[in-house]
Write the structure tokens for this entry.
Amino acid sequence: MMNDELKNLGHMTPPAPSSEARARALALAMQAFEAAENSLAAPQGTAAHRRQSSIFNRLWSPIMNRKFLAGSALATLLVVPAAAFLTLELTRNGLPVDTGEQQIEVVGKDASKGSETKGAIAAKPASDVAADKQLTPEASSTVAEAEAEIAVKRETGIVADDAYGIVRERHAAPSPAGGIEMLAGGSAMRTMPAPSIVPSDIMPPQEENRDRFSSGETNPVKSVTTDPVSTFSADVDTASYSFVRKALMAGEMPDPDSVRVEEMINYFPYDWPGPESEAEPFKATVTVLPTPWNANTRLMHVGIKGYDVVAAAAPRANLVFLIDVSGSMDEPDKLPLLKSAFRLLVDKLKPEDTVSIVTYAGNAGTVLEPTAIKDKAKILAAIDTLQPGGSTAGAQGLEAAYDLAERAFVKGGVNRIMLATDGDFNVGPSSDEDLKATIEQKRKSGIFLSVLGFGRGNYNDALMQTLAQNGNGTASYIDTLAEAQKSLVEEAGSSLFPIAKDVKFQVEFNPREIAEYRLIGYETRALKREDFNNDRVDAGDIGSGHRVTAIYEITPKGSPAVLNDDLRYGAAPATQQADPAEKSGELAFLKIRYKKPDGNTSSLITTPVTEENAVPSLQQAGQDVRFSVAVAAFGQKLRGTDAVSAYPYGSILDLAASAKGEDTYGYRAEFLNLVRLAKSLGGE
Amino acid sequence: MDEELIERAQRGDRNAFALLVERHYDFVHAVAWRWSGNVSDAEDIAQTVCLKLANAIRAFRGASRFRTWLYALTLNAARDHQRSRSREQRNAARFLADPTSACATDNHDQVEALWEAVRQLPDKQGDAVLLVYGEGLSHAAAADVMGCSEATVSWHVHEARKRLKILLGREMV
């Protein structure tokens, strides 16, 4: 598609150049041509045409080539201690150390006298002591003296430029013709600024933030009359929260596109009641509560908890770590963090599980063939050998990883590739589409893919999300070791052992009770209404013990907060087909469709939502419900959602603080800190 | 024909040089226009290239590759021009605020939007896309102009397409 579009570029016909511009260009070109011709004819190599730098070069080259350079080196050996002694002597006698002014004057005068006087130069500027010490063997000649002088001057703190000037004069002297020019060169050098000073107008290029996010419009308020059904796919990713945290910790507001409210909500462990048995993979708990940021609307809070596979019953795992070791990973929050994270994960796995490691950077390479966890030392050693370097060749790496995963394939077990990278994935012949297709195809053969993101500055969030979503995996963003602990160890079960795949949600609202609704978050997860019952449409997966939380803001019929006007010509016929008599009193109807991890046909769970699910005040809602609502408010505020713009950070803080609960791992305390940071950064 | 003109121009024949520049001015202008998307910039760039040509023609070797060389000269000039312009814009913020000085693009159809995105690409990627898609060169010929290997050109094009998708995707959503 892109290809065809690009081909159109060739069809653009440039406008004809104006004849005026054309004539002007031609005339100028002719002038320049003639000027070039003339300069070609002029005698070359005149002094007038020389650049100052060329003088420097012409002088230095023969010096560097001369055989007696060895002599000068010898002389330097002799003179350096002498110079040190001289300095000591001078300072002890209370003489001013910086005698530069005087010396320059002397040098200039002497040199103008010609080559005969040059021998005296070295002796004159320095004191008598210096002259005595400089009696070096004849062989060392003028170069040695010059070197010595440089050394002396350096010791006494004079700018090296002056010394170079003197050297130049000395060596120019033997060729009488060059004498004057040399002098000019010498004095020119003296007035030149120190070479290390960078011109002030060259600024270091500003570092560009190349993180990329796909921007999804915030879900709009929908009218129940025209749009009674809302459909979306489950999302258990948490990458967005870590990214937001990293930005806030770095003292800047996160990019609104990087904030995915549902991922922020789902980051926190909530204690929703779970299902009793494996037969029913998850259970939905619905709470209807008043909206904290709008007195005239309510929130419909749906908490879903997956069945917790007991560790003993967990199937065998075959994990392939696909690790980006490109040069950009050489930062403390990237490769070293990743190594520590994998060590944590290795500790968590069972002895029979196998692990392999593939790296990619320039060339993809297998670092570790499939190895059982009982051979832990070997695995840890392999992790330690990882070194950053080279550029990224993800496609090859992925191929190698799939090869290894197939080789150690565990039937009925968990076969998963854990891709760890800091950014762009693919530098290879294949496009993103090909890559997605490969991952999708491998997913069907039972090998899943999860993505662990590291670092900032080059993170391609959109691609990582797509890869994980197509590979039936999760995308997590790891910025601290605590986060690695959370996503790899505490939640290892859930991201490694899926209990249901292609989990889709559909909520139908009752137009008699609800006028409008708005789904908070899940922008990137929206599905078409008809896709709900289509088993071929891929959707998110839920792992062991996973929690998924979705929140709708609903506007009851007759509320002053209704945004859409009533339709003049009544409700659409479709909504009247719903049997009103039977469903009276119901606010909405929740349907969940899922497949068993190895199944291809879906099952359906349904839950009606009635006034029985409602609580009259915010305080009566459960602690976890309140906390998740606070997170939702915060996420929306960071995204710039209009509905919460009037709700201050302070209120979010109060709401979250009152619902902090036990908070064993400190996740919620950290959230409170982030709200405080955002509050001060946002200037509220 | 070109070969002969070049040879004569190199020996200092001003008529031959004039003819040579005239023959290729439209080509240079067209390339410059594709790159800058703007007639007045294209004219400036073309003029710069003509001047460069006047100074550099004597040093040019390999008459059969004159086109390739012109491409390289033009792309460099376009790049320099763009740089100096963005420097100007940085220095004087009011320059941007003044609607008459803003370098308004000449037309705004869909292809133009795509080109606009191409012009935002990093230098090498933009060059590669221009040469391959805009000028219809093969990857090998583009590599010749850019002075790199064919594989590198393919890579630049691939990267550029990836980036374009993101640039354009964002605008369209």
Q: What stands out?
A: Chain A has 24 helices and 16 strands. The radius of gyration of chain A is 38 Å.
